[in-house]
Structure formats: structure tokens, C-alpha cells
């Protein structure tokens, strides 16, 4: 049985992965709040941004954490197509949940559907990402712990979407993002606690790419996307700010003889 180390770089990868989860959650919440105050194409665009931010944040959190994952007695590589598929699944399934909340007329039903869908998307991304592992040995899972990790994902996603529907102040969104980041990280490490590896030493070269060859550059690119999106959202006026600007402009025009 191989010894599993979830933090080969110490606290660096857990802290960075948590930060990615928090940023993704914060962006998704802010974008969803903007979407609920908009209509038409604007609402759709904000919801797409929310889904991409949350999906990207969750995926980046998972694989930044995986940079610190090691197993004694074997190297670890990643199947590139499966790893990319896990990112696409995260964005698409999370998008279904976000749109269910954004367009649902019955908020209670939309919240349950959105939370379940988004939570299953998070879990699917995690276990697809784990299926992309290539090592000298066999990976097995404790089904009870896997079930617990999926339950955590669903509860966390439902809580995040509830926050998007009911919380609008920046401070409250920041607190909700910290909680959501902790929940996503908990889901990840609960899922990793379900893992055991039976190492079978071999001289053959492992297929796929190493974490530093593929996962690290992709995670850096997606992390940059999150920061740029954060800047865009911060600089974009809210519907209330636009209305106030338009009102002030009309008042100025009326005051000019």
C-alpha cells in the first residue's frame, strides 16, 4: 500500500487552492446577483460569467491541491483529455445549476434543482480529475467516504446558490465566499480521504503528462482568468449605479436651459 501525501509542498498548495475556491465563489455570487437584477441578454451573459467563474474556481482549486499530492513508490502523471474534460464538465454542469436559479420562477424548486445539479457537477469534476491519474499501481475508493464527499458538494452548492438569491451586500457576499471556499475544499479533501493506492513498481514510462508539464500551466492560466474577471466585475457598474447615473444625467440636461 502506497503512502499518500496530500501536501508535499507543505501548506502552500492547500492555502492556494482554498484561495482559488474563494475567488471563484465570490465571482460567481457577484455575477449571479448582477444577473438577477438584469434581464434579456444581460442576464444571460452574467449567468454565463458566473458559471465559468465558479467552474474555473472549483477546477483550479482541485488541481492546485493535486499539485501537492504524492504517492510513495510511484510518479504521478495525468491523462490530458480526461483532465480537460473534467474542466468542461465543471463549467457545463455548474452552468445548468446557475441558469436554473437565474431563470427559475419558483425559487425554492430552482434552488433545490440548481444545488443538486451544481453539487453533482462539482463531484463529477473531482472524480473525473481523479480518473485522469496515471501511476504505477491501482487506485481504489471507500464508497462511504465518496458518498459523504458528494453530499458535501451538494450542500455546499445549495448554500452558495441560496446566498446568491438572498445576499446582496458586498460584505455578506465576501463572508459567503469564504464559507463556500471552505466547503469546496472540504469536499476535495474528503474525497481524497476515500482514496487508497496499491503500488506496483514498474520500470515502464507512465503515459500522460506530469503535473508541472500540464496541470500547473493550465492552473496558472485559469487563475489569471479569475483575476481578470474579478477586475472586470469590480469595474462594471451595477444596475443601481447605472440608473443613478442616468437619473443624474437627466437632471443635468433638465437644469440646462
TrEMBL record:
List the InterPro entries hit by this protein, alphabetically.
MHYT_dom
Membrane-spanning residues where?
15-33, 45-70, 82-103, 110-132, 144-164, 171-194, 214-235
Q: Name a Pfam family for this protein.
A: MHYT
Q: Does the keyword Ribonucleoprotein apply?
A: no
According to the entry, every stretch annotated as the MHYT domain falls at: 9-198
Q: Which UniProt keywords apply?
A: Membrane, Transmembrane, Transmembrane helix
The UniProt entry, under PANTHER family, shows:
DOMAIN SIGNALLING PROTEIN, PUTATIVE (AFU_ORTHOLOGUE AFUA_5G11310)-RELATED
Q: Per its record, how is this protein called by name?
A: Membrane protein
Q: Which organism is it from?
A: Streptomyces chryseus
Amino acid at each position: 500500500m502506497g503512502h499518500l501525501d496530500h501536501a508535499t509542498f507543505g501548506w502552500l498548495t492547500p492555502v492556494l487552492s482554498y484561495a482559488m475556491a474563494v475567488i471563484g465563489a465570490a465571482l460567481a455570487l457577484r455575477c449571479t446577483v448582477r444577473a438577477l437584477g438584469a434581464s434579456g441578454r444581460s442576464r444571460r451573459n452574467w449567468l454565463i460569467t458566473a458559471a465559468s467563474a465558479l467552474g474555473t474556481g472549483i477546477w483550479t482549486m482541485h488541481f492546485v491541491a493535486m499539485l501537492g499530492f504524492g504517492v510513495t513508490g510511484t510518479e504521478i502523471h495525468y491523462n490530458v483529455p480526461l483532465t480537460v474534460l473534467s474542466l468542461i464538465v465543471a463549467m457545463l454542469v455548474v452552468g445548468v445549476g446557475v441558469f436554473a436559479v437565474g431563470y427559475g420562477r419558483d425559487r425554492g424548486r430552482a434552488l433545490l434543482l440548481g444545488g443538486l445539479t451544481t453539487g453533482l457537477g462539482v463531484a463529477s469534476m473531482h472524480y473525473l480529475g481523479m480518473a485522469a491519474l496515471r501511476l504505477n499501481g491501482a487506485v481504489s475508493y471507500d464508497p462511504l467516504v465518496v458518498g459523504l464527499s458528494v453530499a458535501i458538494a451538494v450542500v455546499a452548492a445549495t448554500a452558495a446558490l441560496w446566498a446568491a438569491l438572498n445576499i446582496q451586500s458586498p460584505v455578506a457576499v465576501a463572508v459567503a465566499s469564504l464559507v463556500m471556499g471552505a466547503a469546496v475544499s472540504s469536499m476535495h479533501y474528503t474525497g481524497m480521504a476515500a482514496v487508497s493506492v496499491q503500488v506496483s513498481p514498474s520500470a515502464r514510462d507512465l503515459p500522460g503528462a506530469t503535473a508541472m508539464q500540464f496541470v500547473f500551466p493550465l492552473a496558472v492560466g485559469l487563475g489569471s482568468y479569475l483575476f481578470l474577471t474579478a477586475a472586470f466585475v469590480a469595474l462594471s457598474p451595477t444596475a443601481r449605479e447605472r440608473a443613478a447615473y442616468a437619473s443624474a444625467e437627466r437632471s443635468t440636461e433638465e437644469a440646462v436651459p
